[in-house]
Amino acid sequence: MSSPSPIPPPNDRRNSRASSNGGLRNEADALSEPSELRVVGGPPSSPSPLALRASNSPSSKRRKSRCLKVPPEMSALEYTSTPDSNLVCLICHAPFDKPVQLPCEHYFCRECLEHAWTPQSTHRKTCPTCRRVVESENEIRPVPKIIETMLDELVVKCPNTRTGCTWIDHRVNVHDHVMLYCEHTPIECPAADCRLHTTQKDFHKGCLHYTISCDDCHVSLMKKDLEHEMACAMATMAPHFREQQARLERHEARMEPLARKVGILEDGLTNITNMLYPANANDASFPVADHLDPNESFQHGAQGNDSNSNEPPFDSQVHHLLTLHENLREEVSRISTTLTEVEGRTNMMIINESQRNKDEMLHTNAAINNMRMQLHWLMSATIQQRTTTASSSTSRPSASTSTGTTNRSTTQGPSSRPGPSGVLPAPYRRLSDTNRQDTKL
After folding, report:
1. Where along the chain is composition biased (Pro residues) (predicted)?
2. What is the model's pTM?
């Protein structure tokens, strides 16, 4: 027993082509065979009579006719950029569609040229540009292949752009796109009694050409035009609402750690308050006092207990703490100002004392210099006097010696003592003598 052959996929074109070619060959072989050997009856896969009757019914033909699509018009295409002027027809002012070439080397669209020649006589046809006579149809030639290639490479938009198609491609592919792939291609309505058109994507929805009312905006419009997401105000604001919701969630996520920090700070403030205000039945409130002056704080405390025993001096405990903080800040500022003033006075006293010491030193230096000059003058005078005295004392003994010798030779008796008329030399006095007098200034 032979194994069954594998079933080919439904879209296998090669198998379909092979089967179609095989069928053609089988039909040719059957026609070539004599009539006696022919097998009567259809193949095993032939459709049933009911299926044949249904396929040939008027409703089926009408359904097939309603699915027919209109091919796009090349002259109505929208180009993404301005086409080259050499590729534009001079009659329709659009890029060539099935262009032809005249003997005068002018190019036109085939339909435009036939439309221009319609009012002319059949025996006299001229070029719309240069009026050259075209003798016969044989003179009309196709354009070069390069021009057709340039026309096919022009980039165009889908003819159904206004209905929502965003397809953009070369012009050579626009026919296949519109006829096969575009979901916005208009086709006839599937309803038998409707002669309007619908899009290919809505063909399976049935007839959409009846008036309804929107449940939200209460606007009467056709079913095919009911785009609630585009017309409804709530649908328009939905993206903003989603964004606001996401923003609120982000803010809540950020607020969680801040809330924990605030709770910790509140607990700390509560502890500080409990330390400042211990639990006491007779304790109403504590007034603010200057802690730097104990007497003043005691007086303020006594006055506060006497005068404001019923109502507290502050609205809250936080106000009390803030007031204490401000008092401390003012006290620190006052102390800083006092220190600055004391430092300035001290610096001024030091500067004045230094200036006075400098003046005294200048006077002392001047007196010392004056004494040095006087001492120098006295020493010079003493040295000069000493030199003069030494020279005079040296000359006097020599003269007295010679005179005494002469007298002793002439007179008798000893005469060694000096007489009353004799002059004694002045004694030599040194600087180290105790009986000298000091120089007085």
Report:
1. 1-10
2. 0.36
